[in-house]
Amino acid sequence: MDLKRRLQLYLIGLIIGGTAAYFMLGDRLTNGAWTPEQKVKQRLRSTLVSTSPMAASQLVQWPADLAAVRLSLDSADIQFNKPNSGDTVLFYAVDARVGGRDARMTIRVNRDFDRDSTATLTDLRPR
Length: 127
Description:
Strand order of the largest sheet: 1-5-4-3-2
Shape: elongated
Number of helices: 5
Mean pLDDT: 87
Helix content: 40-55%
Number of strands: 5
């Protein structure tokens, strides 16, 4: 088999394999949530549904609501250098632009995603 025939067969297999992978994996192939920061943002966007009483009072003073906080997570920076976690909970320090102002948020999530999959906004302060 000459080189030209080998290249043709290789390209045909590459096209068939790429097409099959795209249809089997779908959005997981192209969503880009492969880095730890993107994984945390994805989890927080989908599970941030409640606020603590202190954060609720801070949100009243802030020109935003919880939906605006969730939307701001797309362009947020997760501060991994400030770990604050316990045995069962994780606290994420998140820098984002909420309601036109820079904010530092603290978001609490359970370490065991199967037991409780909700995230809670515990603190919202100007940065």
